[in-house]
């Protein structure tokens, strides 16, 4: 049975981060990376005003990929994990339930604390560099910074605003089996376990090799796990 694996990038990321997953997934999995507005093929589109407009936009795209009742799963990394979670709840109101939800390297909303909006440009770039996942050449290239920094900062802004207004455990739980992934260097095992409060079905956590961007380091093992989970 074929299944669409709909993938949500991290803050500042684009659909391109998932482009080589097709080389690793099982034959029955169709990888569908979603592109956020304002980057990649959607570069000319305006950035999201808020998290709600982001969810509404991506919801309309997801619906098109499952309009013929295709089986599907959602995978979201970092900011993408919150987006995948919110999309799952929005789809639930239509009685549309994913086969599986994959939450990657993001603790649940009630434990999330970020405060990047008040940082200066230099402070933000320093935080971004320490976080990893961005090529070192980026920080040396003024032209790239001028193009992409507003995109990255906007993503962090809407995420920060979302977390401020969603800082309690929701009562409407996710109605599909869910898996959490994180890099062992993040040291967030206990925090990832807290997603159980948001899930009404089975929930398991997997520790991967690497840091917050373990999916670049331990990609093959990650996708092997996804293949196994979706084969049930």
Supply database-style keywords.
Rossmann fold, 15% strand, 7 helices, 232 residues, alpha/beta, 6-stranded parallel beta sheet, 37% helix, globular
List the helices and strands and how they pair.
Blueprint: E1 3-8, E2 29-33, H1 51-65, E3 72-77, H2 79-92, E4 100-104, H3 121-131, H4 142-165, E5 178-183, H5 189-193, E6 203-208, H6 214-217, H7 219-230
Parallel strand pairs: 1-2, 1-3, 3-4, 4-5, 5-6
Write a brief caption for the model.
The protein is an alpha/beta fold. It has helices at 51-65, 79-92, 121-131, 142-165, 189-193, 214-217, 219-230; strands at 3-8, 29-33, 72-77, 100-104, 178-183, 203-208.
Strand proportion? 5-15%
Share of helical residues: 25-40%
Mean pLDDT: 94
- Integer tally of domains: 1
CATH 2nd-level architecture: 3-Layer(aba) Sandwich
Strand order of the largest sheet: 2-1-3-4-5-6
Principal-axes shape call:
globular
What does this structure look like?
A six-stranded parallel beta sheet has the order 2-1-3-4-5-6. It has helices spanning 51-65, 79-92, 121-131, 142-165, 189-193, 214-217, 219-230; strands at residues 3-8, 29-33, 72-77, 100-104, 178-183, 203-208. It has a single domain (3-230), classed as Alpha/Beta hydrolase fold, catalytic domain (Rossmann fold). Helix content is 37%, strand content 15%. The chain has 232 residues and is an alpha/beta fold. It starts with a strand and ends with a helix. Helix 1 (51-65) crosses helix 2. The chain is built from seven helices and six strands, in the order ββαβαβααβαβαα.
